[in-house]
Amino acid sequence: MFGCECWCWSSEYEELYDHQFDEPKPYSLPSSLPKWPQGQGFATGKICLGEIEVVQVVKFDSVWSCNLLRGKSKAVTFYRPSGIPEGFFCLGHYCQPNDQPFRGFLLAARGTVANKTDLRDGLVCDLVQKLPALIEPLNYTLVWSADSTNAGCGYIWKPNPPVGYKAMGFVVTEDSEEPSLDVVRCVREDLTETCEPCDRILAVDSRAYENQFQVWSTRPCERGMLCNSVSVGTFFCTSTNLDSDEELEVACLKNISSSLHAMPNLQQVHTLIEHYGPTVFFHPEEAYLPSSVQWFFKHGAVLCCESCETGELIDHRGSNLPRGGENEHDYWIDLPNDHDARHHIKAGDMESSKLYVHVKPALGGTFTDVAMWIFCPFNGPATIKVGLVSVAMNKIGQHVGDWEHYTLRVSNFTGELWQVYFSEHSGGRWVDAFDLEFIEGNKSVVYSSKHGHSSYPHSGIYLQGSSKLGIGLKNEVARSKMFIDSSTKYEIVAAEYLGEGVIEEPCWLQYMRDWGPTVVYDSRSELDKIIDRLPFFVRFSVENLFELFPTELYGEEGPTGPKEKDNWLGDER
Hints:
By secondary structure, the protein is mainly beta. The protein has helices at residues 266-276, 293-298, 339-346, 523-532, 536-545; strands at residues 46-48, 52-57, 60-66, 76-81, 94-97, 106-111, 134-135, 139-145, 155-160, 165-166, 171-173, 186-188, 192-204, 213-220, 229-230, 235-238, 251-254, 279-282, 302-305, 312-313, 331-334, 355-362, 367-379, 383-386, 389-392, 399-411, 417-424, 427-432, 438-440, 443-448, 455-456, 460-466, 471-477, 483-485, 490-494. It has two domains: 46-113 and 128-254, no CATH class; 266-568, no CATH class. The strands form nine sheets. It has a six-stranded mixed β-sheet with strand order 28-27-26-23-22-35, covered by helices on one side. Mean pLDDT is 85; it is low at 1-21, 114-128 and 148-152.
């Protein structure tokens, strides 16, 4: 490729160099993909967004590698797409860190409709000229370069679109000559949505700029099941501070088609789950295992309300639960009063347990999210870690009715598993497919934390709080003989995009109230005992950690069911 070496700043600054590198090899899943059942547009390689058709490009040529030798930042490489199908156009270039497997995509696009209106009934209609969906930029602006030695190592350009159009991404070259206008296309503004910076890929300090030069990955501002924003895969860069309210100079695409034709049909959904369904492992010392919701109801769960003196036994289907409406905390589910019955339900029932699946469109129907929910009748008390000491709480953190989940994100272009989201108490994170632990074929592993049931991709101890101080909520995960294979033990409870009546939602899914009673523990006094054991200089820091703990730690109101969670309609973060 390109072998020039350049020092972009004086010896006081970061040293960047361009070196020889091979064409990147995209990451592949452990096993080949199955032959998907026949359907409309799922896994056909192309998706129509209305006036634009897009393909997902995963083959790239390296343009420029930037290595910060003296800094803490990691080396990154900028790429241009290769092998774009005839008739499709590049929308921008791609960037990613060098210390991870090559795993990225760019969308290439082409217009799909004519520019003039039709003639009808022999009458000449007004021939309204419609602006084309895609158009070349007017010119480019150089936004950053690494050329202080005039060696021509790396240059980043912003396409300047005509009025009424938006740029989708930046262009990177290995020399100072302005790129050709036909390198990329801009998109008509009404076919775009706003995007925002996501993960910072690169940061370079220099006196040549007032602020850091930064490169970010991007994502749509509006995300979720009902949103139509489509991620292009390009990056954003800037040498000024980012304003949270400022609109970026690049945009994402908008799916104006209402058909969602690239989403999988029901048979394809079952094949996806059977092919990718993870195995959920519980800790060897887990005392509070999952069960099916039906088992929970059959074994004595009761519905309580403010005006009830005693709880009402819940029908095994949950048909006598209040449905819909808002959660005003006027109803809640509780365990039976009998001591033995309560103890029995708390332990759960592995034999009956299953994953409850919600299938929904993501990123404007270019991806499918398969959210897999697991129910545990009881969440056990928390463990606080203070340095090398672990302190098990007596009651803090425990509550009735625990709902946790993880989400598979699958590309609708190919049917390939792209990422998995692991819910971790009140937060969570996306993990790329290359960083998953696979147990069989393309089935990954999900570890459920001891007593708390939050999800993690690898075994070990995860600390929620301050890793620097070694203080926070301790989450232990490990393999055991207690596990659920979600590729076989699952029930699809919702897939709204398939249409009314295709999936019959269970009665209990419409219960929007609390799945446990409100119990407030004296958590402050218990945690104060831990703080009193610490050196004085760290006590203030620990006090500030309280807000980082999950709300369940303080015994606040009972948890709600899947449909009351923000991610039911929204994105995972």
